[in-house]
Structures are given as C-alpha cells and as structure tokens.
From TrEMBL:
<keyword id="KW-0233">DNA recombination</keyword>
<comment type="similarity">
    <text>Belongs to the RecA family. RAD51 subfamily.</text>
</comment>
<dbReference type="GO" id="GO:0005524">
    <property type="term" value="F:ATP binding"/>
</dbReference>
<dbReference type="GO" id="GO:0005657">
    <property type="term" value="C:replication fork"/>
</dbReference>
<keyword id="KW-0238">DNA-binding</keyword>
<dbReference type="InterPro" id="IPR020588">
    <property type="entry name" value="RecA_ATP-bd"/>
</dbReference>
<keyword id="KW-0547">Nucleotide-binding</keyword>
<dbReference type="Pfam" id="PF08423">
    <property type="entry name" value="Rad51"/>
</dbReference>
<dbReference type="GO" id="GO:0140664">
    <property type="term" value="F:ATP-dependent DNA damage sensor activity"/>
</dbReference>
<dbReference type="InterPro" id="IPR016467">
    <property type="entry name" value="DNA_recomb/repair_RecA-like"/>
</dbReference>
<dbReference type="InterPro" id="IPR027417">
    <property type="entry name" value="P-loop_NTPase"/>
</dbReference>
<dbReference type="GO" id="GO:0090656">
    <property type="term" value="P:t-circle formation"/>
</dbReference>
<keyword id="KW-0227">DNA damage</keyword>
<dbReference type="GO" id="GO:0071140">
    <property type="term" value="P:resolution of mitotic recombination intermediates"/>
</dbReference>
<dbReference type="GO" id="GO:0033065">
    <property type="term" value="C:Rad51C-XRCC3 complex"/>
</dbReference>
<comment type="function">
    <text>Involved in the homologous recombination repair (HRR) pathway of double-stranded DNA, thought to repair chromosomal fragmentation, translocations and deletions.</text>
</comment>
<dbReference type="InterPro" id="IPR013632">
    <property type="entry name" value="Rad51_C"/>
</dbReference>
Amino acid sequence: MRLDQLAVDQRIIAAVTRARFSSVPELFGVPALDLQRLSGLSRTDVQLLLSAAAATCRPHPAVSAVNYGGLASNLRLSVGCPVLDQLLRGGLPVGGVTELSGESAAGKTQLALQLCLSVQLPVQYRGLGSGAVYVCTEGSFPVTRLYQLISEQPRLRTDVPESVVTSLRFSDQIYVEHAADLDSLQACLSRRVPLLLARGLVRLVVLDSVAALFRSQFQADDWLERNRQILRLGAKLQQLTSDFNSVVLVINQVTDVFDSSNRTGPVMPQVVPALGLSWSNQVLIRLMMRRLQRSVHRGHQRSAVRQLVVEFAPHLSRGGQEAAVWREGVRGLVTVSHGQDET
C-alpha cells in the first residue's frame, strides 16, 4: 500500500516521503523514535501515522497471530535434540523468521545443518517431510560436515526408527545457493527459493549469514540506504515464511558494544547481534549460540561447551541450555551428580 493512501494529513505524508519511505510495510520495520528522527515529525504525528497504517493493513491469515505477539500454528521443527527442543517448546515454529546469532565457531552452522536433516523427517517425528534450501553469502557450503552428519543420523535420532532414517536420501533434498551481493540475494529469494517452496520441495530456508553482505557493501555514512535494504530483506523473508507456511532461519554475526556505565573498573565489551535495531525488528525469535570457556569429554571425543540462549520470542521464556558438538551433531547437556553428561 502506498503512503498517499493513508488517512492522515498530507504534511505527515510529505515528511516521511522526504525521508525516503515509499510504502506502508516499510514503516513497520522502523521503531517510532527512528521514524521521528528521520522524518522530523513530532511524536504525536508519528503515532498518528502508525495508527493510520495499522488500521489499513490486514495481516495474512496464516500469520495474523504472529503479528500480534503469538504464533498462528502449533507446528514445530525439531532441532534434532530433545534437550534443546525442550528449551524451544518443541523446536522452531512454522510461520516465523528465527535468527541464530553468535561468534565464530559457536556452533551456528552446525545447528543449521542439523535442521536441514531434521526437516526431512515425517511430521510424526517432528520434521516437516520436505527439504531445505541453504543460501550461502560467505565462504563455501560445508559439504564434508554435512555428509558426516548424514552418516551419523541413526546415532543422533534414536527417537526415530532406523528404517525411516536410512530410507531418506538426505543430500538429495538440500538445495545450496550462493549470493555474492545483495542484488543476487534478493534475486535468489524472489525467484529460485519461492519456486522450490511452491513445488513443495523445501519447507526450511537457511540464510548464512545476513550480516556479511551488509558489512561488505555499506560504509558508515550509507546508513539510510543500508536500513532500507534491511527492511526490504526482512519483508521478503517474512513473506516467504507466511506465504509458504515454512521455517526461515537466519544466521547472524555479532558485534562488540562497550558499556561505560561501570565507572569503577575497565570498560568491557559486550557481544550483541549485528545490524542493530533495524534488523532486530524483522525477526520473530532471536536465539544466540555462545561458546563457553570449558569443555566436556565423551569417549575419545572432546567438545567446547556451548550455550543456546533465547534472547526474545513471543512464546518462550528467556533462558539458556548448555550443549556440545559431537560427531553426530549438537546435543544438549544435562547436569548429573558427577558433572555434565550429554543427552
């Protein structure tokens, strides 16, 4: 919907148009304070604008509950581990964009690959009975690790009959795409990915990673165009998950921020997801993987301890669950009398 169709004073429309907003959906991706700063409007004018926009928009039936803080569907995609699924109340929800952020080697790609296999299992085993499309924006697809996970699926998914696991040709149902810049990413998400979804070949879309292209293509003074591109990408991902009743997982990098409120000691950096508020408004669920400063052993294997943390989600409580990366995949850790034991 165009801005000039809103039932507000044309002075307000002119101000947001000068700020280079052209449609109603763009307004919902920007916090009210940012709209006020970018347009030069008063707080009252911005509230009138957003109220008029909300009154004229009718959400898609499949995601109307998502837009108002709930989840329209109870369907979940298991992450392949009952301990981690318990943290997520069954897994990743269908009909929403989930972000998984973390530092390098935290285990983000490991979990994404595991989901690419889990989605192929039948619904009764907490899969979606379809494939996955994996969009790479940096580096190459980790095909060697994927085949290792495939060979170890019977060990990871002991809750699934081995005959079901071995009957699936996992590698044939993972479609890999590469995007070197934002234009090619948008083309991929607008053409190739919707075609796979429409044909029922995939129901999981993984983007790895969202921050890479924005960091390489924009300088500090390009913030306005950068934010517009973030909103455009967010709208496309939300459209994919709602139109095709699918799961969208976006891997994000992190950045350091410094808290100077502690005047009595040194200023310490805090790790937060990259791309700031403009991007955070585009996701329904934000998860973070952290790599802790200790490790666990199991037989001849050793793994650094990770922690999967719920940063925000409309249906989840904030909290975390420790995990380890083994040969067969990512498993949650449970506390036993003599320390940590994997489940």
